Each structure stands twice: as structure tokens, then as C-alpha cells.
User: Fold this.
Amino acid sequence: MRLFVLLLAVTGMLSSCNGHKITDETLKVDGAYLATLQCEAKKLQEERFKLAQDIRELEDSVMYSLDSIAKLGFQAKLDQLVASKEDMHSRTKAMADSITHVLNGFYEGTYKDTADRRLLDVALSAAYQSNCK
Assistant:
């Protein structure tokens, strides 16, 4: 009888610790979703870097141009790019907030354990490698 109670208690503890079984399909879907967000973030980062490079080049053109008409054209383009920095900042912040929110939801729900998070990382990496180019 004691053995039965002990066995029942151990089984109950194991099932409460491992109450949710993460399926391969769940990992695949969640990994793909995170990979999509990561891919979008990477593209946004590339846009930010390109914008910064274009601004630097136009600043140099404005500074070193001897032709006053060309300088006005460079300055107009520069003003447009500088104005777009605020939009880029807003988009970057929204993307970061979105990723943080999704990860927090995953970590508070399905992926509480470190081992589960590692499985999610593997699924994310696989999905990112195959889908984000």
C-alpha cells in the first residue's frame, strides 16, 4: 500500500512538472513564427543601415560639393532622408516590442523550462535558415 501511495505521488509530481508535452508541430509552428519576426527584424536592420549610409554619403556631398545647384539637390535629398529617420525609429521600436511580447508569452506559457526553450531555439534556427534569405 505504501509503495502504491509513493508511486502515485511520484507519478503526480512528474505529470505536474511535465504537464504539457510540446509536440513537434507546436515547435515547428512557433519556431516558424519567431523566424518570420526575426527575418522581418533583419530586413528592417538592413534598411536602417542603408538609410544611415545614404545620409552619411549625402552629408559628405553637401559638405564638399562646389556646385551650388547640385548642393541644393543633395540637401533636399538629405532632408527627405533625415525626415524618414523618425519613421524608421518607430518601426524598429514596434518590431522590438512585438518580438519581446511574443517571447514573453512563450516563456510564460508553453516554454517555461530551459530545455523547452532550447528546443524552441533549435526550431527557430531551422526555420530561419530555410525561410529567411
Summary: The domain at 23-131 is CATH 1.20.58 (Methane Monooxygenase Hydroxylase; Chain G, domain 1).
